[in-house]
Write a structure and sequence with these properties.
8-stranded mixed beta sheet; 27% helix; 13% strand; globular
Length: 1031
Amino acid sequence: MESVSHSDIVPSRPVTFTAPVSHQSSPHKFSKADNFDPRKHGDSLPGPANLDRKLRQFASMGYTVLVRPEEFENHILPDETRSLLRDPDPSIVKQIRRECLFRRREKPKPTENDVGEFFVGLIDRHSLCPKHKATLSRFKPAKNDRTKAKVDAALYVKEEAPKDSRPDWVRCRLFIEFKRGGTSLDPYDDTKLDGPESKAQSRVQVQAQLTAYAHNVFLYQHRAWLYSLFVNGEEFRVMRWDRSGVIATKKMNYFEDAKFLIRFLSYFDALTAVGQGTDPTATLIGKDSRLYELMDKYAEDSDSDMDHADGTVVPKPPTGVPSRASSPASQSTPSHPHATRSKARDAAKAPDDRPAPPFPPSEPPPRGDIDPEELTVPIEGEDPRVFRYVRRKFAESIKGDWPRYILLVGDDERVFLVGKPVFSSTTMFGRATRGYIALDVKSGRFMFLKDSWRPFYVGVEPEGVYLEKLLGIEDEDAKRDIHVPRPFRHGDVGEQRGFTAAYAEWLAAQAEKAAAPLAADGRSSNESDAIEDPLPRGFAAEEERLTLQSEAPSMSEAVDERPASPLPPRSLLGKRSRDDFDTAADTASDSEEQPVSQLHQDSTTEPEQPSYRLYTHYRIAVLDVCLPFSEFTSSKQLVLLILQCMATHFRAYQHLRLLHRDVSAGNVLILPCLFKQKGGALKVKWRGVLTDWELAKVVPLDPLSEQSARQPERTGTWQFMSAAYIKYHPRRPVVVADELESFFHVMLFYAVRYLRSTIPDVANFIFDYFDAHATRNGVRGCGHLKSSVMRGGSLVDSEAILFLNADGTPNGHLNVTIAALLKLFKARYDVITWKEQQARTAANAMPTSSAIGAPTGANDNGGGDVSPSMEEEEESDDIPSAATSRPKSASALTAPTKQKQSIKEAEDDAEKLSTHQVAMDLIADACRLERVQQLEDMPQGPWPTADTVPDRCPPSHDSRERMLVHMEASLLSTVDDAPQRKKIKTEASEPSELRTFPSRAKTTQHATEPGFERHGGTSRGRGREMAYPGQ
C-alpha cells in the first residue's frame, strides 16, 4: 500500500467548514453527558467513578474510525517513524502459531485471566518489546486514584515498571485490555457501514471501559495521542487515541498471523516517549528536582499575603514597587504575585548533589530549565503581593502524589509549573479543558493556566484573541465596565492537531474522488448519495431593529478567504443532525421576530451521533486567579455581580458585535480587585468576571448574509440556554434576548442554592428547572418548569417561590427584581406564541388590538399589583457606567401586573430585550436603592447584608444519575448475551457489574406543548403528573 504523509492529511491552517447549516450537531444531544456534570458549573463534586464511566459510554459514541492493518502502518503512524517498522523473524511467527491457547481442547475455554497471563508471557518469552515491560495490574487500582480503575496490563519503560501489580497512570506508555473472546465483548463491528460502534449493552460497556482507561492516561499525563491494545480471546486490535476520536484496526487473529502484532510492538519499542504520543512541551518534574522544591516553597504562607474579602483595606505596596491599583473612576487591576521571591530563588540556587529528575533512558533533556537568576524578573507594574486564597489554591493543587509538570506556553515558550488541575473535563473526546493554578517561574507569580483543544476552523478565534480585543477597546466607559481575565501568554501548542478527525476528513475526500467517475457515468455510490441533504440551508433574518444606535459598531468582521477543507460524506462520518446550527448569521439580528413561517418550526428529528471535529492544542495563561461565583456574600452582591457580567457582555456587543453564547454558572467568576483610596491605602472590591469566550462569535452587520456553519458542532451549556433557543434551534439564531435570559438563569441558579427561599427541596427544584427535559419525536426539548416560568412570567412551581430574609420575611428587593425581569421574558414568549398562532391560521385570528391574557401562574406573592416607588442613594462606583446613563428621576424597575396586555404592549416589552439597556437599568435601579415600596406583605427595608447560607443543595446531589436513565433507555439496545464474568474486579472498573437503571418513566402531555413527553420532573407541580426516572 502506498504510504501517505501526515502533511497531506493534517491541515496546517484552519479549515473552512462547508456543510449546510443543518449539518451541525448540538449540545442538546444525549451523548453530551458532560453537560450534566455539576463540576462544569463550579462545583467540586468528585463524582462516582462508576457513573463517570457509564456516561462515557454515550459520550464516546460516533468517534471511531476502523482501518485495515496496512492502512494503520502507512497512514496512521507518523511519517518520520515508519522506517522503524521491521518484518519479524518467521520462526517467531510460527512458534506463536504453535502456542495457540485456544487450540488446547483438553482444557476449558480460557478465561480472561488466562488470556491476559498468556499474552503478557508471549511478549516476554519472545522479547517482542525488549526495552519495555508488560505488567499485569488487573486486581489492584493505583493508590490515590479515585476512579479505582484496574486496567488489565500496560507497557512501561523497564526502569519505570511498577512492582506492586498496580497501574501507574503517570508512566504508562500503552495500556492493554483483555477479554475472554466472543462478539459480545468486542466493542466494534467490522461489518457495519454506518459506524463501527455497536449499541448492544455488553459491547457498549466494553467501549466505555476502554475509553475510561484512555481518559485516565490523558488525565495524569500530557499527551498528543496514545496507543493501546485490545485483546479479545485470540483476536486483537491496535488502537490510537486522541482528543478528536479513536482509530482502531480491524480485528486480527494473532495466532494465525502474528506478523502485524510483532511489527507494531517492535516499532513501539523503538520509539521515544514523544514518538509514543507524549507532549514535548510538557515535562514531568521529579520529586528530587529543584523545581519540585521551588513549588513547595511558593506554597508556603507569607506574612505579606492579603485578605481578599470584599471591602478589606490593605496597606500600600512595598516602597519602590509600582502599583496598578486604580482610583474608583478608572479600571481596577487585581494583584496576584508572590512576595517571597528571594526565598524561592535561594532554594533554586542551593547546591544540589542529588541525582537529576528521573527521565526515561535515551530521552532528550527536559525543556524549560530556568536560570535561578531569572527568578528576579517581576512583571512590570504589578503589585508583588498575592491574595491569600490564590496561594492556598496553589498549595492544594500540589498536595499528595499528583504529578507535577513543566508546561510551556506561547511563542516564547514561557515556563509554568503546575500540579493537579482545579478542573478537568470528564470526557475523553472534545475540548478536554483542564485548568491549573500555575506558577510562572520567571516572575514568581501565580496565574491561571487553561489547557484545552480548541476547534481549528476559519472564523473560530482562540479565546486569547477575543480577550485581547475586549481589553483593547479604547472607550473609557467601556474600559471601566469590561471585566474579563487578562491574557499573559497564549497560543497553539506546536502543531498538535486532532489526527482522527483530520484522517476522517481525508478519507471522505478520497471517497468523493472515487465517486466522481461513477457519478459522471450516471451511476450512484454510497458516498455521493450520503452528502445529499433534504433540508434547506436556512432562512434570512429580518432587518435588525436596534433601539440604541450606540450598540452598532462601525466596522464589520473581516472574511477569511483561506481554502476550504472537503466535507466528509455521511457514510464515513455518520449523519450530522439538523440540531443546533452555528451560522455566519448566528445572532445576526437582535430582533426576536424571525420570519414567522420558520420561527414556529422546531426540530423534529433525534440528534444523531456527533461528527468528527478538528481540534488543535491550545494553552492560555491569564494574570487573574478568580473566585467561584458561589463565594458571593449577600443577595445584593449576587445581583450586582451579575450586572457587572452583563455590562461586560454589553460592551463586547456594543464595540465588537461579539456575543458570548455560553453564559452559564461556570463561566461567571469573582475577581477581587484593588482600588486606591484617599490617603494611599488600597481597598478590595469584588468584580463579576465573564470568562470562557471560546464560543463567542461576531455578529455580521448584514443580517441578510448567507448562513453557513463555522464548525461541525456548536457546544454550549444546556442548563442555562434560553427556553426559546432550546425550542427553536436550528431555525433561529442566538440573539441578545437569549443571552439576557441565560444571565437570569445563572442568577436564579445561585440564588436558590445559597439564599433562603420558600423552596422546600432545592435539589429537586434544580433538577426540574435546569436539567429536566421534554421529548418529542426523540428530540430533547426544554423542561416544563423553565418553560412555564418564562411563559408565565412568575417564579411558580407548585406554589409561588419567594426569597427570604434571615427573619423569614420576604426579600423584597430580590423578589421584585426577579419579577420585573420575568415580566419582560413573558412578553417575549407571548409575542412568540402569538406569531406561532398567526402562522398556523389562514386568517388573522388574533388582531393586534386583542389582549393576550394575564401572566400564567401569577399571584399576590410572586408578582404584584403595586408598582414600587424608589428612593435614590448616592450612585455607587460598583454600578457599571453602561447602566447609569438614564436620568435619576426615571426608573426601569417596575413590578408586573395582572392586567391583560395587548399584543402591541407585549411587543413593546419584548422589544426591550433586543438590547441590554433596559435589563441592566432594571438591575442597576435595584442595586442603587436602599428602600423599595414592597407589596403589602413585604415590609420596607434596605437590602439584607450577609444573608447567604450554606449550599442548600446537598453534596450527594448529582443530576447525571437521573439523566443517565433516559440515555440508557433511548440509546442502548437491550441485546446483551454476555455470560457472567469470571474475573474478579470492583464495581468501578468492570462493565458487567455496572448498576442497571430502570427504564425512564413516561408522563402525561402538557397542553401547551403538543406531543411532548416530560422526563425528570417531580410530582409537586400543579397539574404535572411527573416522576423522576429511577424513583
